[in-house]
Amino acid sequence: ADGGRNLSLDSILMGLPMSDPTAWATAMNNLGMAPMGMTGQPLLPDFDPALGMMTGIPPINPMMPGLGIVPPPTPPDMPAVKEIIHCKSCTLFPPNPHLPPPATRERPPGCKTVFVGGLPENATEQIIMEVFEQCGEVIAIRKSKKNFCHIRFAEEFIVDKALYLSGYRIRLGSSTDKKDTGRLHVDFAQARDDLYEWECKQRMLAREERHRRRLEEERFRPASPPPVVHYSDHECSVVAEKLKDDTKFSEAIQTLLTWIERGEVNRRTANNFYSMIQSANSHIRRLVNEKAAHEKEMEEAKEKFKLALSGILVQFEQIVAVYHSASKQKAWDHFTKAQRKNISVWCKQAE
Hints:
The protein is α+β, with helices and mostly antiparallel strands. It has helices at 9-15, 21-30, 125-132, 157-163, 192-220, 233-243, 249-262, 270-281, 283-326, 329-332, 337-350, and strands at 85-86, 90-93, 113-117, 138-143, 148-153, 169-172, 181-183, 185-188. The strands form 2 sheets. The chain has a 4-stranded antiparallel beta sheet with strand order 1-2-6-7, with no helix packed on it. A 4-stranded antiparallel beta sheet has the order 4-5-3-8, covered by helices on one side. Residues 277-304 form a coiled coil. InterPro entries: ENOX, ENOX_RRM, Nucleotide-bd_a/b_plait_sf, RBD_domain_sf, RRM_dom.
């Protein structure tokens, strides 16, 4: 479900023989499925589908063949219980659960490479591949002669699976020789290839974001005005008629201005342009009359405002006069302390 497990019915059948019904029930329990037999009957009656777990069944080994390496999810306040991992050429023993988790460096951006230290002296690239390819696809292994190596994976999330193995003791085969044992330390590693791929990805995301914003801006951008038509005798007659109409005058005068700036005026069209300019000039008297009418309305509005404001000021003065009269001794002594305080505050606000 988390994308980290690669589980199939065939792989479960390979890792868990059908002769062991408890193991079959455990596998189905860890998959979050109700334990059912091959005939469709429930194997255990006390399975609680809401909890996704059964009583009396030990936790499954996350490194069991055919199952993903990610351990079953545990509550954040409970330490994860690591178990022994059996590989073909080696065995991994879990660290002491009471010890603090291994320290790791800060994760580099786009990290796909891990540092693996504490390898046995006799460990080969094939053994390292056998252990870590269970986490996911391995791109390259760069092994050093000093018992450490760098492993690069295909995806970033595989690195988190590889860190799960940090702290495990590894033993090659059944040997107890010091050269065949070691304690793994897995940590994030800086790699130029990872940083380059991460920067390329960031640039691609930035391009996509710019493209998305540009589309968003174009969606809300107001439409461009229609282009001005080219001059012709027909269009000239249309514009001349519009110039005589007060409601279409603004549109027509803009077309006339564009034609003149384009250089449409010549000896053949000069008379037509003169007629249109004359029509435009005839609107000046109308505009002057409208201006005078608006100025008259403005003066009337100013006079009305002055009258209203003077009435408001007169009422304010009357209210303040009431406060002053109430503050005189013969009336003031009859008010309570709270009433006097309110009257004083009201008087200051009104003034």
